[in-house]
Amino acid sequence: MKSFKWRKQLLSMAFVFSVFLFISCGANDTDYALNSALETNEQETTDEHTEDVEQSDDTDEYDADSDSDGVSDASDLNSDSSDESIDISNGETIMETTRIDDTDNFYGIEFTEDSEIFARIKDKSYKDNCTVPVSDLRYLHVLHVGFDGETHEGEIICNKYIAEDLLEIFEDLYQAEYPIEKIKLVDEYNADDESSMADNNSSCFNFRFISYTTKVSKHGYGLAMDINTLYNPYVKTVNGQLSVEPANAVDYVDRSLDFPYKITTDDLAYELFTAHGFEWGGSWSSSKDYQHFEVPDSVVNSLY
Questions:
Q1: End-to-end Cα separation, the chain, in angstroms
Q2: What count of other Cβ atoms lies within 10 Å of the Cβ of residue 232?
Q3: 116 touches 89 (CB < 8 A)
Q4: Is the pLDDT of residue 77 over 90?
Q5: How many Cα neighbours within 13 Å face the side chain of 284?
Q6: Where are the beta strands (DSSP E) in 73-135?
Q7: Where are the beta strands (DSSP E) in 221-277?
Q8: Residue 48 has pLDDT above 50, yes or no
C-alpha cells in the first residue's frame, strides 16, 4: 500500500514536471514565434519604407524632368514667338517670317492707320496723295554696326513684297559687321530726301512721283533701298552740268578714288541685294545711283 502511494506520488510529480516543461517550452516557442513575427514585420516595414523612399526618389526625378521639360518648352515658345518681347500697339501685328534667325531683333510689323507707326509717317513720307495702300507697307526693326563699331537699332518702312528680303539682307550685313552709319525713317528728316541723304541716312519708303511725271518712284512704293548715301551719291549730268545728290557728296563722285564705305560690285551690300533680285543703280548708263538698290520694273508692273 505504501509502495503504491509512493508510486502514485512519483507519477504525480512526474506529471507536474512534464506540464511545467510543456508550458515552459510552449512559452519559449511563443516568444520565439512572436519575436520572429515582430522581426518579420519590422523587415517588411523597412522594406516598404525603402520602396517608398525609392518611389519618392523616382517621383522627384520625374518631377525634375517634368519641370525641366516645362522650362524648356516655355523657352522654346518664347524663342519661336517674339510677340511678347516686341512692343506693339493697337493696329499692329507681328509679321510672319521663315528665313530670319534672330527674330527678337530683326522683325517686321504690319500696321493700320490706327497704329502709332502710321502716326509717325502720316503727312510726311505717307502723304495725302499717296496711292500705296497702308496694308502694302511694313515696318522693319533691324540692327546694324555703326561707323563707331557699336551696335545700333535701325528702322525701315518698306513694301511687304520685299520685307523679309530686307530683314534677311540686314541680318547678314549685321553678322558680317558691315558698317552702316544710320538707318532711320526718312520722317525724322520731315521726309526731305536731301536732308536724309546729306546725313548719310539709309532709308527706303518715301512716297513721291518721278520728277515731271505721274509715275510713282520705286521709293514711293517702298521697293527701293538706299545705303550709306553720302559716300554713294546719285550722279547725273543735266544740260552739261553735273548734278550730285546729296550736294555735300561731291568728294565721292570719282569712283576711281579709294575711300571707305564705297559700294562697288565687290561690296557685300551689292552681293546680298543682287542675290535677292535687286538691281543696283551704280550699273545704270544714263545716270549713276551708287547708294540705290531697287526691284526690277517687271516686279512693279506685276504689283501695281
A1: 147
A2: 28
A3: yes
A4: no
A5: 17
A6: 92-94, 107-111
A7: 224-226, 234-238, 241-245
A8: no
Burial of 188 (0-12, 13-18, 19+ CB in 10 A): middle
Q: How far apart are CA 133 and CA 64, in angstroms?
A: 53
The whole-number pLDDT of residue 89 equals 85
User: Quick one: DSSP state of residue 201?
Assistant: B
Dump strand ranges (E) for the chain. Answer: 92-94, 107-111, 137-145, 151-159, 224-226, 234-238, 241-245, 279-280, 288-289, 292-294
Q: Which three cell numbers mark 40?
A: 518579420
> Which of the two residues, 254 and 38, has the higher pLDDT score?
254
The type of residue at 32 is Y
251, amino acid identity = D
Which residues are CB-contacts of 186 (< 8 A; sequence separation ≥ 6)? 124, 125, 192, 193, 196, 201, 203, 205, 206
Range of weakest confidence among 47-61, 160-174, 231-245, 276-290: 47-61
Residue 96: C-alpha distances to residues 107, 120, 225, 284, 288 (Å): 8, 23, 21, 34, 35
Per domain, the residue ranges of the chain are 83-303
What is the maximal distance between C-alpha atoms in the chain?
Answer: 171
